TrEMBL record:
GO terms for cellular component: cytosol. This is Metallo-beta-lactamase domain-containing protein 1. Endoribonuclease that catalyzes the hydrolysis of histone-coding pre-mRNA 3'-end. Involved in histone pre-mRNA processing during the S-phase of the cell cycle, which is required for entering/progressing through S-phase. Cleaves histone pre-mRNA at a major and a minor cleavage site after the 5'-ACCCA-3' and the 5'-ACCCACA-3' sequence, respectively, and located downstream of the stem-loop. May require the presence of the HDE element located at the histone pre-RNA 3'-end to avoid non-specific cleavage. It catalyses: a ribonucleotidyl-ribonucleotide-RNA + H2O = a 3'-end ribonucleotide-RNA + a 5'-end 5'-phospho-ribonucleoside-RNA + H(+). It is found in: Cytoplasm, Cytosol. InterPro entries: MBLAC1, Metallo-B-lactamas, RibonucZ/Hydroxyglut_hydro. Coiled coil: none annotated. One of its GO terms (biological process) is RNA 3'-end processing. Residues 48-116 form the Metallo-beta-lactamase domain. Homodimer. Gene3D superfamilies: Ribonuclease Z/Hydroxyacylglutathione hydrolase-like. It comes from Anopheles atroparvus. It comes from the Eukaryota.
Amino acid sequence: MAQTGETVNEIIVLCEGYSRYADGEHPGGADGEEGSEAAAAGDVMLANCTCTLIKGPDCNVIVDTMTPWDGDLLLRRLQEHQLHPDDIDYVVSTHGHSDHLGNNNLFLRAKRHIVGTNISQRNRYYIHDFNAVWCGKTLPYFVPA
């Protein structure tokens, strides 16, 4: 329960992700188990990330913007929460796969785009060493409200 004066953020899954082999087979089980062989060249995966909205009183963050073919779906899901791409302050892509950053271009007014360990806005790239350690702890990147 939030204390008086404490900021409360709402975490909303806009689209739930998935990952499976197109033919229904799932290689990679434990040795000796059915499906223990590694994926072969030519195998096809069906996958998309989970797209999450962190909606706060002063700041909105979208995490992983799905594939470029999901733009209309993403816009509809934002609209369901009374939001427009211009209302998003920060875009976070957990890594550089196309299903995690496919619609980052919708959020051109965001203060920062964070892709993996890269932080940028327009042609500015902000230097932050995510591996830096101070007093035995890694230094996080704080998203200001």
